[in-house]
């Protein structure tokens, strides 16, 4: 009822950090919030001085901090906040923001623009990841009682292969304009990964036959967001160039908590021992095969977990652009060896 509570010419304080709206605050309250605003600005100025520095722990361990984006426009924020790459481009927004299927050419232009803007910094683009509840009518995805456990992500792409090929063609064509990495979502079996990789090879052959250029150095990775994928990460690592752990879904699948359900949302906790053990297991298995691991879920920006992730040996953290410098500051204050010695999972 906020819009009925606020009247024309009312004085309002909006605090985006705590999610508070204060209407016609007293002079005392106003003074408190002006002081809070001042301290916030000072903190931002201090963080801005970290631009151009590296995310290196006190004992010399480098961890890359990349940005999560959902549109071409988001790239500016990533660059402005000194992202070391794009760790997750949610390509589904190209589909969700249109009332029809985005053409190969439209997708190509979007991917090309992001790659060009990021120049020599790597860009990880996740292939289409939608569910029946996302409201994309033209894809004709059936409504389901439990879309989180149903027809979604790579399952749709491997079923609607022509749709998948359109996106892969656009990605491959754009690859010559930067450092592209392609990532498959919702992988839970080795067979899914192999089928998806085979489709990329088929499209490469088609493009080569038509003499259409594409990069010969495209890394192919997967999202680790199901407990099954984490448990067989030793096998999946042999077929992947990199892993990206999606903590949002991994957490809800592991604890059996729908994070969108307010009744049980209090049980959703990425610091749950079961979740942390799956993350640690995934990182160990990836490193055995000499591939890198990123964390790209909301937990990547949670500074209460940064020490734990560093201790586990994570290689990259991918966060919303506004969190990049805060996470960099946190990493620069950590001694990785000391954190590893304290880790008990």
Q: Percent of residues in helical segments?
A: 40-55%
According to DSSP, the number of beta strands is: 10
Secondary-structure-derived class: alpha/beta
Shape: globular
Unreliable stretches (pLDDT < 50, length at least 5) are none
Secondary-structure element string: HEEHEHEHHEHHEHEHHEHHEHEHH
- Number of alpha- plus pi-helical segments: 15
- Order of strands across the widest beta sheet? 3-4-5-6-7-8-9-10
Largest sheet: 8 strands, parallel, barrel
Distance, first to last CA? 45 Å
Which percent range describes the beta-strand content?
Answer: 5-15%
| Rg of Cα set | 22 Å
Instruction: Name the average pLDDT.
Output: 95
| Oligomer state of the chains in this structure | single chain
Structure description:
With 345 residues, this protein is an alpha/beta fold. Helices cover 43% and strands 14% of the residues. The protein has 15 helices and 10 strands. The protein has an 8-stranded parallel beta barrel with strand order 3-4-5-6-7-8-9-10, surrounded by 4 helices. Helix 5 packs parallel to helix 7 (161-174). The protein is globular, with a radius of gyration of 22 Å. The mean pLDDT is 95.
Provide keyphrases for this structure.
globular, 15 helices, two-stranded antiparallel sheet, 8-stranded parallel beta barrel, alpha/beta, 43% helix, 345 residues, 14% strand
Question: Topology, pairings included?
Answer:
Elements: H1 2-5, E1 12-15, E2 20-23, H2 27-48, E3 64-69, H3 75-80, E4 86-90, H4 92-96, H5 104-118, E5 123-126, H6 154-159, H7 161-174, E6 180-184, H8 190-209, E7 219-224, H9 227-231, H10 233-236, E8 242-245, H11 247-255, H12 273-288, E9 292-295, H13 306-312, E10 316-320, H14 324-332, H15 336-342
Parallel strand pairs: 3-4, 3-10, 4-5, 5-6, 6-7, 7-8, 8-9, 9-10
Antiparallel strand pairs: 1-2
Helix pairs in contact: 5-7, 7-8, 13-15
């Amino acid at each position: 009822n906020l819009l009925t509570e606020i009247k024309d010419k009312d004085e309002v304080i909006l605090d985006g950090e705590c999610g508070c709206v204060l209407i016609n605050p007293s002079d005392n309250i106003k003074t408190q919030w002006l002081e809070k605003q001042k301290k916030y600005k000072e903190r931002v100025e201090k963080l801005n001085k970290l631009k151009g520095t590296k995310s290196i722990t006190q004992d010399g361990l480098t961890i890359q901090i990349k940005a999560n984006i959902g549109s071409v426009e988001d790239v500016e924020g990533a660059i402005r906040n000194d992202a070391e790459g794009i760790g997750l481009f949610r390509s589904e927004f190209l589909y969700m923001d249109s009332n029809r299927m985005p053409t190969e050419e439209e997708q190509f232009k979007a991917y090309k623009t992001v790659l060009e803007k990021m120049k020599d910094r790597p860009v990880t683009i996740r292939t289409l990841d939608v569910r029946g509840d996302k409201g994309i009518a033209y894809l004709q995805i059936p409504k389901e009682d439990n879309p989180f456990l149903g027809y979604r992500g790579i399952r749709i792409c491997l079923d609607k292969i022509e749709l998948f090929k359109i996106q892969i063609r656009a990605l491959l064509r754009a690859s010559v304009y930067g450092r592209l990495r392609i990532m498959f979502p919702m992988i839970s079996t080795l067979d899914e990964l192999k089928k998806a990789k085979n489709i990329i090879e088929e499209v490469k052959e088609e493009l080569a036959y038509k003499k259409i250029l594409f990069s010969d150095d495209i890394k192919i990775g997967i999202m680790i967001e199901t407990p099954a994928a984490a448990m067989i990460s030793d096998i999946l690592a042999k077929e992947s160039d990199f892993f990206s752990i999606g903590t949002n879904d991994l957490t809800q699948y592991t604890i059996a908590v729908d994070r969108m359900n307010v009744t049980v949302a209090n049980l959703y906790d990425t610091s749950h021992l079961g979740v942390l053990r799956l993350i640690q297991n995934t990182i160990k298995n990836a490193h055995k095969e000499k591939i890198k691991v990123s964390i790209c879920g909301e937990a990547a920006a949670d500074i209460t977990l940064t020490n734990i992730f560093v201790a586990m040996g994570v290689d990259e953290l991918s966060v919303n652009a506004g969190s990049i410098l805060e996470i960099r500051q946190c990493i620069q204050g950590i001694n990785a060896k000391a954190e590893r010695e304290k880790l008990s999972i």
